[in-house]
Design goal:
alpha+beta, Nucleotidyltransferase, domain 5
Length: 258
């Protein structure tokens, strides 16, 4: 029995029609916008996460608390939980000021999966459980990951930050759910950003070091001596800095923890 042959034109039509179907599905996906943030008081320490999710007509705020966690884990949790509440496959634009989350999900995770969730140094990926949850939460959506600068006056990023910090400090946080028009009115009545006081001592840039801070493979570490820091970072793709006060150390840990 002869087997019918598909002509080159038939193949072309098949792929064209398939592309049309895929594009039609994407065009009918709901557009979702997410801003999310995480925070911890100490690293580790008590932490919180916050998010604002909008479909263009409604807005929903989310948040949560953990007794003992890190800033990075709260950043990941914020992204996971905000994606999880989007039940149907959607076109999602997720904004975060966490370079750790952005780099991890767009660059590092492919290598981790290929290596069986191990780093290049053959060590377990830090927060592997949350990275796996994030991959699962994102896989049914078409997600665009966008990095935004923290504490730069971006309204919804500032709101997510305030929610996260409120939970981390075990404050009473009122979460909004309702129309986008009403949400804009609520936002107008709220403080525009969390006030962060700066100590004069943090501007001191000379004298004995208080500590040395390094970040390697997304993990921030404090070293009491330069010898310890140098041993960790020498010859590796790491960042490090000498700091002169506890305040500067805490601020840098928060910045690099993102």
């Amino acid at each position: 029995m002869s087997v019918p042959q598909v002509s080159p034109l038939g193949d072309s039509l098949y792929f064209i029609l398939s592309s049309i179907r895929v594009n039609a599905i994407l065009s009918h996906m709901k557009e979702i916008t997410i801003y999310c943030d995480g925070s911890s008081i100490g690293n580790p320490g008590p932490g919180g996460w916050g998010a604002v999710v909008s479909d263009g007509a409604r807005a929903k705020e989310l948040g949560g608390y953990e007794k003992e966690t890190t800033n990075n884990r709260m950043e990941l949790t914020a992204a996971i939980e905000s994606l999880r509440i989007v039940k149907n496959a959607s076109s999602v634009t997720l904004h975060t000021d966490s370079s750790y989350v952005i780099n991890g999900i767009t660059k590092w995770v492919k290598g981790w999966v290929k290596n069986g969730w191990m780093t290049k140094e053959k060590k377990d990926v830090i927060s592997k459980d949350l990275w796996q949850e994030l991959v699962m939460a994102a896989e049914k959506h078409s997600v665009t990951w966008k990095h935004v600068k923290g504490h730069a006056g971006i309204e919804l990023n500032e709101r997510a930050d305030m929610i996260a910090n409120g939970y981390a400090r075990k404050e009473q946080v009122e979460l909004f759910y309702g129309s986008l028009a009403q949400y804009k009115k609520v936002l107008a009545s709220l403080p525009k950003a969390r006030v962060v006081s700066k100590s004069k001592s943090s501007s001191k840039k000379t004298g004995p070091a208080y500590s040395y801070v390094s970040v390697l493979d997304g993990k921030v570490t404090i070293h009491k001596t330069w010898a310890e820091c140098e041993k960790r970072v020498k010859g590796k793709p790491a960042k490090f800095k000498k700091v002169f006060s506890k305040e500067e150390e805490t601020a840098l840990m928060r910045e690099w923890g993102r």
